[in-house]
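note to self — DONT lose this again. spent like an hour looking for the file last time. sequence + predicted structure for the chain T wanted, 388 res
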Amino acid sequence: MASSPFSAAELAYLEAHRNDSRLTELQWVYSVPIVASMISTGLRLWAKQYGGTGITLDDYLIILATMCLVGQCTIGLGFGIPYGMGRHVTAVSPHDQMLVRKGDYVFSHFYDLALVNVKLGILAFYYRVFVYPVFRRIVLALAALVLAWGVGITITLLLVCRPLSAYWDSRVAGECLHIVTFTYFTNVFNLASDIIIFLLPVPMIWHLQLQTKKKLMLSLIFCLGLATCVISSIRLTIILGRSNPDFTWYYVPLGAYSVFEPLGGVLCTNLPIIWHMVRKRNARLGSLPDSKSPNTNSTIGSHRQHLAIALGLVTRDRTRNDSPHITARDPVSPGPGEWHRLDDLETQKPDPNVWTTVEKIDSGVSKDGPSEVPLKPGTKKTVWNVRK
């Protein structure tokens, strides 16, 4: 008879708490991320279509990350709760324990893929928004490192045991890697890369010639991702207990941190896009940011202007792709979607079908149409454009 992994005192405690359950906690843990990630990613895609910028590479990567996160939660709901996860292992049958471990194996793949896609999605967003060559080279180097890390952990999980079934079936004899050491290493890299990625754009933002309030707002939006670093740190502290024999009970906090970590990344990368949409909508309603600063265009360089336009700090005339001028509503023809450059307003000519010319000579006589008779010395002519 195989010896028990629990001491006599531990067995007595497990037996006394045999009916304890964390099922309600698990249902919330795996349901909330599904709703939150799908809503935020849906708003992101709507914002991109609303702004007319189209779907780009960073959007596809965040969509993949959202799908992987939903996959994580689905595995937790489908292979965790029905088979004893959230209960003490002594109250779970050996067959159900095996199914929980199988679910954990698939769950781990979804977790790793979700993190990789979130990181790559954020870096692709940086590459699209910030056009400084040195910054873009740093982004590409980080993306290559993250991609190599993702491939490495995926291959390691595929080869974690020989045969692979030994990972979830204790009756199968086989050799397995020390999973705690592997998980600890991957989480250290994950935490370090998160800190670097989320702090990377802050120096770029503070080089923009914007109001300090806007710099602080942008920095706060980008640094919200540091909240995921806190989750990564907490998750790292419980990794060393992964080999706890009461795994069906212990997997609950580990699973919670494993879904909220990629959820935090998805939310923080969707937020700037949604914020940009809100600012653009306000601009279209007439509350154009920076419209009181006509010299903004001349003070922001081409790199800074690209970032400002991408984040919705200023707008530009879409009908003039080569024109960087800030746009404003046409006060003469304020129809929806009609935008003109500020310097064009002074050169616009009246429509002859709508406007007519009226002249008045100092004699007090007025007539329609331009005068062809030369004025006498000492006389003065005044011209108005009026509607017909």
